[in-house]
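User: Fold this, then the next.

Assistant: Folding the first:
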Amino acid sequence: MTLTAGERDTLNAMDDHGLAEMWLTYADGEDRARDGRKYVEYLFFGRMTEREADAIASPGVEITLTHPYDVDANALMVLGEHLESEQLAAAYTAPEQVWTAPKWNMTVLNSYRKLGKEIRTVIDDAKQWQPAKVRVKRKAVKP
């Protein structure tokens, strides 16, 4: 089941706080509520994109825009020329005898971006960005 045009118009007219409350209302439902939740997330995505924001403040809901990416592991091999062996070892997991893809720890590598333009360029060029996604979840209730 999908939302009616009137329901979409009502949601479009709401402010961020009202939309967050509606998302909470829809969060526990099924079918029609799922459509409403997805539409609210779509509206949040549009608003954050328009504002060039990565989050919307709301008391009961955490609303963020994530920017996922894949990494070209082979492109990062050049970092061996720029990093100390200990730094490289902290970020890189070599493939094992049983075939596994090589892995890079991007949390560690991103901390190396400040070490120079060449390193920053290699790391940034290896990122294969995916479309941004809205992440909405209930905030943890503090006792």
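Now the next one, as you asked:
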Amino acid sequence: MKKVEFGMIWRMYGKQTMEVPDEITTIQQVRDYLRTHWDEIPLPDDGDYDPDSDELDEVEEINFI
């Protein structure tokens, strides 16, 4: 048998908290605020694997090792 190295992609689900400005009073305003600041929000420290979400990265090279 030979070994190969390849990329895998999978999803995780976790919850995060953050503060929003006091003038935000509706869930829709919260959603809009989160979308606007999405790149500033860190990933959750604890998360769970999203079952059956794993797939082969078909863009990354596959190498014999």
